[in-house]
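Need tokens for this chain, all 524 residues.
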Amino acid sequence: ILFANVGGYQAGTEDSYWYNQAFLNMDGTFVDKSFEVFGPDANDPDSPSLDTGRVIKAYDFDGDGNLDIFVGTTWSTTSRLYMGEGGGVFTEVSETNLPQTLHSIGDAEIADVDGDGDFDIMITDWGDAPVGQVNSPGGVTRLWLNDGGGVFTDVTEDAMPQINVNWSWELEFIDVDNDWDVDVLISCRSCAGGGFLFENNGGTFVNATPGNLPQKVGSVDYEVMDLNGDDYVDVVTLGDGDGGGEGFRNRVLINNKNGGFTDESADYWPPLENSPSYDYMGAFLDPNSDRKPDLIVGAFSDWPNRLMTFSGTSFSGDPDPWPLVNTDGTYALAVADVNNDTKIDVVMAEGENLFRNRVFLASDIAVDTAKPVIQNHVFEGMWTIGETINIHARIHDNKSPNKDHDWTEVVFEYALNDDDIEVNAMTAPLAWYGEYLWRGDFEVPNADKIKYRICAEDAAHNRECTPVQETMIEDPNETESATESMTDSNTDSMTVTDSNTDSMTATDSMTDSASASASASATA
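Here are the structure tokens for all 524 residues:
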């Protein structure tokens, strides 16, 4: 488990610099490896390095098969990047691999934005302190592109709308229009209108907010999931409102299948279940294994954390999902099976001074027996020998966000000619590239026909496959030969070319860590 720690709320303070934390999972017991991962502090070689980490992410940025760590820092500082060498060894490459510009980062998300096969970084920038006030300038949402080797270039000026966002705590990648690229939602706590929707247009983002994203002042978090089963992802947004008469409320925005959303909160999260709250972060999970996405929300200060159970049509609160433990103000949370008992556990990063981060191990919930969900997989038309087929699918386990450790395999499975796919299947791996999106390139082999499907197996070994499809395979050489023969023998005939389009309750186990911050982030 990784924690980013920083002091200060709307501006940096004397104690803003803190050390980030890394805990090695030893069968559900965690060992502090912060010093080994982040290295010594320049002024105190016996202590871990200090910074103003607001967000922490672990992905393979250089394609070597090892997880790397990005730490997004705030209060006008430069961020940090640690490359994994394997065996728990990390090397800091911040000065050579990251833009050396000063930012106050509120959040960062990872995806392949430009479709070149590597992970890029998008960040929200708060701008100059004090942040979050009416006259605060805010900052432009920034995009750093990866060169494939883990070296990042800032392309914000050319690729992002030049719109200052005042105090964004969250951005979330989402394919809102099912065109297989990642668009982005950006929250804004202090914008007069609310958050933003930027649409990805070939790696360049344009502002698609007007008419597409129902506006409400405030918002601190977005969580993305298909709630109504129409194969388009919907959005839950937390902490909307100005804190006045109606307080801060959560909303449910349903995808209209036309690049935007409609506010259907009253139906999906009824007012009696959606009381005023200070919810700061949420995550989808399926603790009862009914293949419906429930929602856990972590709340600020003394406000209660909640588990909202989804019936398939609406959310309702679990009356007592937690032990009698004060969690001291949850700023971030993550869900994962940390002790390998096939039950989903919860990690919480606590803020507001010296509070302990917490791990809640699942007890009275079901083991995971729910199969994964595979959506939006369509192929049409005949294939041709040697042709490259671009395979796409949206695959998830009713959990957010997607992580590699959620899966044992995600593959394109196929058999040729008359081979039985249940017996003689071959596989080609699919790779995650953002949101719940997976893809792979498949070169059509020399055969007469092919049977195929997409299969996914989660960490609890629950497996799901799409229905088997079959298509004939065309040999381009035979087609050319037949066309030449027809042309030679029918000189007065009209030639017609056929075009075939290819589409296709919990137990508390506390870590001995102190978040020591007014802000914390966790990743598991």
